[in-house]
Prior knowledge:
The structure is a homodimer. Chain A has 13 helices and 20 strands. In chain A, helix 4 crosses helix 5. The mean pLDDT of chain A is about 95. The interface between A and B is large, with 78 and 78 residues.
Amino acid sequence: MRAVVCQEGALEVRDVPAPRPARGQLVLDVLACGICGSDLHARHHADAAADAAQAAGYDDLMRPGDAVVLGHEFCGEVEGGGRRWRGPVVAMPMVRAAGGVHLTGLTTHAPGAYAEQVLVQESLTFAVPNGLAPDAAALTEPTAVALHAVDRGQVARGRPAIVVGCGPVGLGVVGVLKARGVRTVVASDPSPARRALARALGADVVVDPGEESPFDAAVGAGARFLDAQQLFGLAVGSMEKLRAVPLLPWQHVFRLAEAAGAGPQGPVVFECVGVPGILDTLITSAPLATRVVVVGVCMADDVIKPSIAINKEVDLRFVLGYTPAEFRAALHLLAEGEIDANVLVSGRVGLAGVEEAFAALADPETHAKVLVDPSAPGQLVRT
Amino acid sequence: MRAVVCQEGALEVRDVPAPRPARGQLVLDVLACGICGSDLHARHHADAAADAAQAAGYDDLMRPGDAVVLGHEFCGEVEGGGRRWRGPVVAMPMVRAAGGVHLTGLTTHAPGAYAEQVLVQESLTFAVPNGLAPDAAALTEPTAVALHAVDRGQVARGRPAIVVGCGPVGLGVVGVLKARGVRTVVASDPSPARRALARALGADVVVDPGEESPFDAAVGAGARFLDAQQLFGLAVGSMEKLRAVPLLPWQHVFRLAEAAGAGPQGPVVFECVGVPGILDTLITSAPLATRVVVVGVCMADDVIKPSIAINKEVDLRFVLGYTPAEFRAALHLLAEGEIDANVLVSGRVGLAGVEEAFAALADPETHAKVLVDPSAPGQLVRT
């Protein structure tokens, strides 16, 4: 079958063996497969990505010399699906192979879906419900990434969320935050086109970070943050109020004190840029008690100022991936219309045009998510 | 009255005006005041500490040229206490002054307790219960710092805690963790004397980090951590198990899936060293899903590898200070014998010996917490 193979930074359509399913596995005819930022990483920074995965205990992420079929955001139909698997399906991109479990589209052991067919685990396969179109269903995987990040962010009621960087993952985070009922979502990106997409996905406020701080924008939208001097005043003031009620029993008084002394609530920031310096910029400009969910993958070493992070009680929560339950929940958010995936899909390309699509994705004004469709003609078409 | 003044890095006993209480304030005759690591910072790195506080919105932390009476970990008796304030008291070190609320012992607006007397807010003052000795009560403030750090760490049932660095704060964290019922506490410090103190405060395992990784020690003590390959196997395996039970309704199956898919639980690490490089060392050597509570104050810029933190889903939670409720809770942990403060107190010194005590604290083998007692003779005495 035909597939796009990445090797030594080159992308090339090759004829490769069709997948052969073992027990518990299925073969999908690919309908659509999204091009992901980590595919761009895999092409040009494979060693750095593989080193980081190795540090976490996964030894088989692709190296530059490996010939790997990329593609892990896919929707397809089960070959010979019969009654059990009728219509489009999606699958979490992991398969049993070579004595372990491997990441589809990111290792030689598990070829991906920039191809006519792809191998999946039946246990990780989900029927696409509600007549959701395959193009939209192909966004299940990046939506699961966004959903997991939002879960890890634990945005409390009334706390604003700020999404820094509106690439496909940042836009997915905007969509999930609004689907989850977060009231104030501020989205920040230098690109007008990306800000328009953030708006379309429900962002309440969009800012160009070159012109306005997203934290100021959150305040403009009604958020209230404390600085250290205000926090000190609150601590003393709340105790003075409590001590002015001598008739209440201490236990009760201190229950009140705990409420009063719970500390400030900063915003939850979703960092979806992933370049050196962005964490330090956020730490320096954030209000007290800001929680930063680090979704953007910065491959280089980075410098932070711990003393400022401490004085502000900043949290940095680094996130990756999702659970099977989150993958399924993402599919349902899309299928139930909670997130409009069509907003994100900007283009479609055949296998022969993948290289062209990678290049086009460098311009945020033109494209957000491009889908590879092995049945389409080669060249990139805007949708 | 006599007090130890810090200015341009020098410590000097001077005659200073006695405190004059405004409405809502009390004057304490100081019985004991602990020497804190931040006093050492204040002496030699005042500008860096003041810059970090300023970034968080507190503008008045001492600068090198300021003449400041240090000391914020104190126990005293209320001058003219009468019936309301009989016996020893402690107070949260914040006072209203100069139109704001200021940090006692760290600014010119709020002289500290390396002195015969100190000014406090009545609303932040707590009678010492249960006949707790003033020396032990003086440890309320650092114990509150430790308690706040443990609160922010949210150590889940069955999750091990690892305390890296057994200075007074790290030792306080060990004590609070055990008081809170955390089952496995591993304490790590190169100093044999500090490891012995950690043991005395209840650490289940102590390690010399030069000889053994505290993470390995936690595994030796029964902790189970997953690496990425094991996590992938768990995700697929749990879904295979669930799919093998076709008779259960989907809703129920997915409740199980969520439980199975909750992800790995790493240890909670309390970083109590505060030197450049320690965060990167922890990120690099930690298992998946490690939560690092950053208690140690590193004043220099620091380099981390975000890509490894992401692949491991590490959390960095930076912490500082405590609430009034936590301050009171710390006093009660000490007074109820949940933490034995006497273990920590290694010496006592008069005002004239504070400089000697600062020097002696550089050697972890000899001293942990030294108390300043304005009624004692000058020189440092081991207790």
